[in-house]
Design brief:
This protein is α+β, with helices and mostly antiparallel strands and 794 residues long. 37% of the residues lie in helices and 24% in strands.
Length: 794
């Protein structure tokens, strides 16, 4: 600053200090003669002019003059000094007065005095001790050199304390941050990136909220560019945001990205920035919604406002709990104007029975300042009560006082409904497991008794044959139970394989009746067959279809009192084949009728129920028929009124070629066949009873058999003996069968032996695991003796 030289010929030495308020009076009374500046009438005209300007200004100003930086300041600046500096700061050297802040301000002053340029700072922190307390104080100020013909004589400072404004901005930013973090929507700030021609080519992430990663699938984004994270990102995204950054016109739009594999609903607006290149984005991943938009297109216009608005309901409240803001999301959910919720208006949407619990939770959060979270009901715009989750966080000032509460309300009704359905499903599963335990225990009792008979029978052939028959029947029953479970599992996981050939349903009916007839006759039921004319051809698996129909016939026989009537009817139309099984038995309750084909569903089971079963049959029936492209229907007038099950399959036109027949199954015999080629067999199983039983059977077939219970013992025997066949249990202690077979294959005596796995698991992945380990075959317990004997004879 260079001022003109004025003529200050005074009437008295202080005429230029006339007026000036308290500081003018203080300057007039100051002993300037003893200061480095000397008497005021000797001061340079430039200094006199600036002092006069200083005293007449209402803006905070001060002057540092001369090499010692002697201080002058006005009344407006005096208010910021505090008792530590005023009034002694007047006439005091600047470095001495501001020693505690000189590291921050001194370099600028010394630079300007040495001929440097002016400096200007906005919202700069300069901590000072004031009123006995050292505070963080923010200032907006500028330094200008004071210059006349003699050169730079001092520094003029124009300043303003902006601490209150700074703290207000901080609180506002904290409020906005809390609001953003409670959102389910993704939020981010981006800066546009342009090339040397000024064309936007990318954008950089400056800030993101917690939901950002969930909505985009991107991680660790702050400070990185979009095309670094998504190299194939479409240029149109950059162009849209750049247009908003340049024009300043906010925009709401829906756009998809093939590179990200997602669709987004976005609201974008420009944020004030020195280079006008920062954009704020609020967005939601709507990929799932876009997949169903052909179905929602008709209602899109009606609900356009709701779809465009945020689905989250956002609110804020004063420290005492009164609503002072509600967003448009409330209108979409509750159908009310957001303003109607202000104060205590929100209570109109709450369930009156839940209000006491809401009040208690809210008051507890108010008193302690803890986050507020509660699930409760809210009235939907349709009048129904829906489950919602309400959350709120306190916004605090720098001293920890609650300024306000920021909260959200989320519709969680569907999740709660699904949770309840899962709970009911889990309950049905528990009931099923209890029935499974019961059904598996039932055959164990006769098996145990038969085992005792074998001990006591000596060489009595009748007792031995009886005990053997009992054990065989009960084991077959247990195998059937396990097979049913595996069938249901395979079908439900889509692993069931069907043979698809031309099948005449008359042949299927004949096969099913052949299986079910003994039970029907034992119950003395009357069986009525109604078979329509002509061939009833379908494409499918004959064995599975026989299984389905036999299941329906067996159920009818079981659940019809003795001496009842069972009817089976087969008919065909041009397009369908229908096979119905009806009875006059116990019938089905109306409440159970819609669920009879569901897994884990049974009618109420009582201790005196005379018929076993796990309730899997009908679930398997429906699954198998669906795999064949058909459907199953059920009808019953109620308890005691009988029932009717109808299988409907697509009819197939008669093929020109021959019908494929299922391969014949070998018949079971009561005694193992004697082998023509005895083998040396080692059974390795930690279940001694199972191993010894199998040893007896194989010995009776003519093989030489040894048994070991541990892998270590098996390896010792393999080192000293030549074994033809190893039967290895998979679940061995210390070393499973897969590891054991690898060790055996590495031994000279055992490398060429036949290795057969024994396991309670027989899924495809179990068999594949055995093959990878080095086994030649995989048998499922209980072992099918004919197959084992055939393997030993091979």
């Amino acid at each position: 600053m260079r001022l003109p030289l004025l003529d200050w010929t005074p009437l008295n030495r202080f005429s230029f200090l006339a007026g000036g308020g308290d500081m003018g009076a203080l300057m007039r009374s100051y002993d300037w003669d003893s200061s480095p500046l000397g008497a005021p009438d000797t001061w340079p005209s430039t200094l006199k002019t600036l002092v006069r300007l200083l005293l007449s200004s209402n803006h905070p100003m001060f002057i540092w003059w001369g090499d010692a930086l002697i201080q002058f300041y006005n009344d407006a600046y005096r208010q910021t000094l505090g008792p530590e500096r005023h009034p002694q700061a007047l006439g005091q050297p600047g470095k001495e007065c501001w020693a505690e802040a000189w590291d921050a301000i001194g370099p600028d002053i010394e630079r300007i005095m040495a001929g440097g340029e002016s400096a200007w700072y906005e919202d700069r922190l300069v901590p000072l001790t004031r009123n006995g307390v050292r505070d963080d104080i923010w200032w907006t100020y500028g330094y200008s050199p004071i210059e006349d013909d003699a050169g730079i004589r001092g520094v003029l400072v124009i300043c303003k304390e902006v601490t209150e404004e700074h703290l207000l901005r901080e609180r506002l930013e904290q409020t906005n941050h809390t609001l953003i973090e409670t959102m389910d929507e993704g939020f981010c700030l981006i800066d546009m990136v342009r090339d040397e021609t000024g064309r936007a080519i990318d954008y950089e992430f400056v800030e993101v909220n917690k939901s950002f990663s969930q909505q985009t699938g991107l991680r660790d984004c702050v400070g990185r560019r979009a095309r670094e994270l998504v190299p194939q990102l479409e240029q149109r995204w950059v162009d849209i945001y750049d247009e908003i950054a340049v024009s300043g016109v906010a925009r709401r739009f829906v756009e998809g990205s093939s590179a990200m594999g997602r669709w987004f609903s976005v609201y974008a607006s420009r944020i004030a920035h020195p280079e006008n290149r920062r954009v704020a984005l609020l967005f939601t991943d709507i990929s799932e919604r876009r997949q169903t938009e052909e179905a929602l297109r008709e209602s899109e216009a009606k609900f356009r406002t709701i779809a465009d608005a945020m689905p989250q309901m956002i609110w804020s409240a004063t420290p005492d709990g009164s609503f002072d803001y509600a967003n448009e999301g409330w209108r979409g959910f509750a159908g009310v104007a957001p303003e109607s919720l202000h104060g205590t208006g929100w209570k109109a949407l709450a369930d009156p029975e839940e209000l006491p619990a809401l009040h208690a939770a809210w008051f507890a959060s108010q008193e302690g300042g803890a986050p507020f979270e509660i699930e409760h009901h809210a009235r939907h715009r349709g009048g129904a009560w829906r489950w919602v989750l309400t959350r709120a966080l306190p916004v605090r000032d720098s001293e920890g006082r609650i300024l306000r509460w920021m909260g959200t309300m989320t519709d969680i009704h569907d999740q709660k409904t699904i949770s309840e359905e899962l709970r009911l499903s889990n309950s049905r599963k528990d009931e099923f497991l209890a029935m499974l335990a019961h059904e598996l225990r039932n055959p164990l009792a006769p098996i145990s008794t038969a085992a005792q008979i074998l001990k006591l029978s000596g060489n009595d052939p009748k007792r031995l044959a009886h005990a053997s028959d009992v054990i065989g029947r009960q084991v077959r029953h247990m195998v059937e139970l396990v097979d049913d479970l595996l069938d249901v599992s395979r079908v439900n996981r889509g692993l069931a394989e069907l043979e698809r050939v031309e099948v005449d349903m008359r042949t299927v009916l004949h096969g099913a009746l052949e299986q079910a007839r003994p039970l029907i006759e034992r119950q003395r039921h009357t069986l009525v067959e109604e078979v329509g004319p002509g061939r009833a051809l379908v494409i499918g698996d004959s064995k599975r279809l026989v299984q389905v129909l036999a299941n329906l016939l067996t159920n009818a026989a079981k659940y019809t009192p003795e001496g009842g009537r069972i009817a089976v009817a087969l008919s065909a139309t041009a397009d369908e084949v229908r096979l119905a099984v009806s009875d006059n038995g116990i019938g089905i309750e109306a409440s159970l009728l819609p669920h009879v084909f569901d897994l884990f569903t049974q009618a109420k089971r009582t201790p005196d129920r005379s018929h076993g079963g796990l309730g899997l049959g009908l679930a398997l029936v429906r699954s198998m028929i669906v795999l064949h492209g058909g459907r199953v229907e059920v009808a019953s007038a109620g308890l005691g009124q009988g029932s009717r099950f109808t299988v409907i399959l697509p009819r197939h036109a008669q093929a020109a070629g021959a019908t494929h027949a299922a391969p014949a199954q070998p018949e079971e015999t009561g005694q193992p066949m004697r082998t023509a080629r005895p083998r040396r067999v080692l059974i390795v199983d930690d279940n001694r009873d199972a191993a010894d039983s199998l040893s007896v059977v194989l010995g009776a077939a003519g093989h030489r058999v040894a048994v070991e219970e541990t892998p270590a013992a098996a390896l010792r025997r393999a080192a000293s003996e030549a074994i033809d066949v190893y039967l290895l249990d998979i679940g061995l202690p210390g070393m499973d069968g897969h590891r054991l077979v690898a060790h055996l294959r590495a031994m000279p005596n055992a490398a060429g032996a036949q290795m057969i796995a024994l396991s309670g698991y027989g899924q495809a992945q179990d068999i594949e695991a055995s093959q990878r380990a080095g086994f030649d075959a995989h048998l499922v317990k209980p072992v099918e003796l004919p197959r084992l004997l055939a393997l030993l004879a091979a």
